[in-house]
Design brief:
- The complex is a heterodimer of chains A (about 160) and B (about 550).
- Chain A is of the alpha+beta class and about 160 residues long.
- Chain A has 2 domains: about 1-75, ACT domain (Alpha-Beta Plaits), CATH 3.30.70.260; about 80-155, 2-Layer Sandwich (Alpha-Beta Plaits).
- Chain A has 4 helices and 9 strands, in the order βαββαββαββαββ.
- Helices cover about 40% and strands about 15% of the residues of chain B.
- Chain B has helices at about 5-15, 30-35, 45-60, 75-85, 115-120, 135-145, 160-165, 185-200, 210-215, 215-225, 260-265, 280, 320-330, 335-350, 360-370, 385-390, 415-425, 435-440, 445-450, 465-475, 490-495, 505-520; strands at about 20, 40-45, 65-70, 90-100, 125, 150-160, 205, 230-235, 250, 270-275, 295-300, 310-315, 375-380, 400, 430-435, 455-460, 500-505, 525-530.
- In chain B, strand 5 (about 125), helix 6 and strand 6 (about 150-160) form a beta-alpha-beta unit.
- Classes of the chains: A alpha+beta (about 160), B alpha/beta (about 550).
- The interface of A and B includes residues 17, 21, 22, 56 and 69 of A.
- Bound molecules: thiamine diphosphate and magnesium ion.
Chain lengths: ~160, ~550
Amino acid sequence: MRHTISVLVENKFGVLARISGLFSARGYNIASLAVSETLDPTISCMTIVVEVQDEKILEQIKKQLNKLIDVITTIDFTKKEHVERELILVKVNYSVKDKAKLENIFDKYVGKIIQAKGNTAIIEAVGDQQQIKQLLEKLNEFGIKELIRTGRIAMAY
Amino acid sequence: MTGAEILIECLKREGVEVIFGYPGGQVLPIFDKLYDANLRFILTRHEQGAAHAADGYARATGKVGVCLATSGPGATNLTTGIANAYMDSVAMVAITGQVKSFLIGNDAFQEADVTGISRSITKHNYLVKDVKDLARITREAFHIASTGRPGPVLIDIPSDIQLAETEFIWPKEVDIRGYKPTLFGHPGQIKKAAKLIMNAKRPIIYAGGGVITSGACNELKNLVEKLQAPITWTLMGIGDFPATHKLSLGMLGMHGTAFANHAIMGSDLIIAVGARFDDRVTGRLDVFAPDAKVIHIDIDPSSISKNVRVDVPIVGDAKNILGQLVEEIKKSPDISEWLNAVEAWKKKHPLKYKDEGKIKPQYVIEQIDEATKGSAIITTEVGQNQMWAAQWYKYTLPRTFISSGGLGTMGFGFPAAMGAKVGCPDKTVIDIAGDGSIQMNIQELGTCIANKINVKVAILNNGYLGMVRQWQELFYKRRYSQVAITSPDFVKLAESYGALGIKVTKKEEVRPAIEKALKIDNTVFIDFHVEPEENVFPMVPAGEAINRIIGGLA
Ligand SMILES: Cc1ncc(C[n+]2csc(CCOP(=O)(O)OP(=O)(O)O)c2C)c(N)n1
Ligand SMILES: [Mg+2]
């Protein structure tokens, strides 16, 4: 199962290597990772989606993260009310006659065509896991040429 | 002050008495300041020796061990010693030189990414990029190394930073927002534990190295005596509790006593203190102590429920928690039946060996025990020698058994003995060695002689990498593959360094040789030619339940 955790860390060089090193050294899988500065510039937030077989491993991951000196705190969203979002960029096949059909999709999903040129369009969209999955299914009809995802970020209420 | 001066000032303020190390190009500014710093420096013959010596010093004294090496090869030579200290939670600060900060990343001469290399074998590490940070970093390094679950901290200092100047500001206190070890156990958890204990029928105490680190031996003894319950310990826990006490079962696990293993398997409550349920202790996990509830006291939350399921976790310092726990136990459970069962196991499966034929290694250790009245500091190498030293010497005091537990580093014992002797000059320090292991850091003989560090090395010379040979005998049909090993003439070798060498080939020479070595004010190598194919028993094959004990005598 996939779990989203946020790790607040000292905003110093080498910290990302400590976090990723911990995962690789202990054989844990990172499904996605998003890193950025927070409101407090001395603190970075790393949102990590981990793939684990059982809760025991998740517990161990959190404990190991907390053990790192540069980790200030960890937030496990598994049992927390929260929102999750991911941004994607998708390159799809495009012709002018598709325009309306494509734009229709964005009545239901948060996204837009950023650029349409020749026979391709680049689309940006934001959503949670479910929305992104559904949107991608819809876009599949047009033929997806390329896909880039930011990785998940999350915020508790 | 320059960076080098700041470093030395910080070391002095941290109470450092001795540094083990080796010079080189990228630490020249530091060595120049050491020249008249009035700080004891022990020049080892190899950086690995320096790291192990700092480790042995730390384990023997409870202080932080310090080692120092140059960049590149100096630093990589330290890494085995750092990893060793990390696995056994030893407080150590390792200082390395680094190429000039503007050359980092350039594949400069003797450059290695030492913070990268050491990341997973240190509790924390630092690359100093600004001399203004050096005092704070050094202060933090000592704090992190010595508090919570201790461990090695590395400080990598580029040589230009060692020369750069700034005002020296000694930080009044350390405040790291991401590092606040829990010291006091949760009172609710302690109450729960007490309740479990008062209702237990077959309790056993299982103690590890954390008890020694925490200085909790008295509190542990109070618990054992209050409950009148049997106690067993890990390799790292040797010295937690006197082996001579009637409730002691000795070490458990792969080469533990049969009765300790039977007792923990048959228990209904395990009180684990500062131990981590390592695989060498639990054997096959799914059948480990099937009826037992587990109380686990540890300062490291990540040690709890890592291997076995824990019913009552208590995170904090063992000394505090044990003290409170003993108070919470209002009445001790009646466990006389259980004690009878344990006593029966003790009678049925005593620790023993056949004392016939050539010199038996177990006999040598018994003789060392008698001759030193169990009061020496014993360090060990790794292999059979280590297990026999654990089994046959009767340790009664903490910090008297110093052995590479987690990493199992051959070559640890001799430099560790050296460090222990530097820290405890009034103690007799003996390295119980194997003929293979001693050859891994034998160059430190030079250090011992040059610095008049008198340690005794008892080589159990069996002509084999004995522990590996034992596994090949038992599990690989005696196909001895690369386990016979030759040795130099240890007597001549010792003599060539200025030490004394004694060769012992007959049983009746064993005790006199030990007495002679103890009397002489010099480093002594005693080369005991022991039974070549003696095995360490009892033994539990790796991955088996720990009551599946093999070995004719078990
Ligand atoms: C640095 C290192 N290399 C290899 C090993 C694997 N190993 C474990 S015990 C052992 C044999 C040790 O031989 P010796 O020192 O003669 O001790 P004995 O078992 O014969 O007492 C070996 C090779 C190790 N523990 N450490
Ligand atoms: Mg040997």
